[in-house]
Specification:
Blueprint lengths: L2 E5 L7 E7 L9 H10 L1 H9 L15 E5 L5 E7 L11 H18 L4 E5 L10 H18 L4 E6 L2 H20 L25
Parallel strand pairs: 1-6, 2-4, 2-5, 5-6
Antiparallel strand pairs: 3-4
Helix pairs in contact: 3-4, 4-5
């Protein structure tokens, strides 16, 4: 499986694309997204400002979805801006939204022909997603998607020691999980493919 977890600075990643844990307005305000905007240079903020806001919601990227820009001064061709769901106690479909967001990222990367991408742990920061659930969703969804996209490799960047322990621990056990339940796949729908691939990751949720 072309999936690994490291603890480090995602802005140093060299590859085709990295994922930004974005906000709905695609601004570089706070945390990881601020670091990415700083490292990319002023061109990134300028491009994001040119992205039209939705006339109904007033946002540039809806929660649970992604947009893409140039990589600018980063050592990647493109930046995938992904807006993770906020944790509201678990009764608002947050787990399914996070799963679908990871699936959308993977499908986008495959559609664009990327060979290597970096992804942070989404929604675990100020969005408040429980790390034990978020890490399972990430590893299972990405791992299953890689079965469909064998030419793609993924590096998950953990924020902290605690995050690293969770993501790496889930990854360590993932091979046996996939072997025991080979029918597990992740449900991907979206604008990047002419077909729907069945995915389900049922025990993530």
């Amino acid at each position: 499986m072309k999936l690994k977890v490291i603890k480090g600075d995602i802005t140093t990643f060299k590859g085709d694309a990295l994922v930004n844990a974005a906000n709905t307005m695609l601004t570089g305000s706070g945390g990881l997204t601020a670091a990415i905007f700083r490292a990319a240079g002023p061109g990134l903020a300028a491009e994001c400002e040119r992205i039209e806001k939705d006339p109904v919601t007033g946002v540039r990227c809806a929660e649970g979805h992604s947009r893409e820009t140039d990589g600018y001064a980063l050592s990647v061709k493109r930046i995938i801006h992904a807006v993770g769901p906020k944790w509201k106690g678990g009764g608002d479909g947050e787990a399914a939204k996070l799963r679908d967001l990871y699936a959308e990222i993977m499908q986008r990367a495959n559609h664009e022909g990327y060979k290597s991408i970096a992804i942070p742990g989404l929604s675990t920061g100020h969005h408040g997603f429980p790390i034990n659930l978020a890490s399972r969703i990430a590893i299972y969804t990405i791992g299953q998607a890689l079965r469909h996209y064998p030419g793609l490799s993924v590096t998950i960047y953990a924020y902290s020691d605690v995050d690293f322990e969770w993501y790496s621990g889930i990854l360590e056990s993932a091979n046996s999980v996939f072997a025991d339940f080979p029918e597990w796949v992740v449900h991907i729908t979206g604008p990047f493919s002419g077909k729907t691939e069945s995915l389900s990751c049922r025990d993530c949720l």
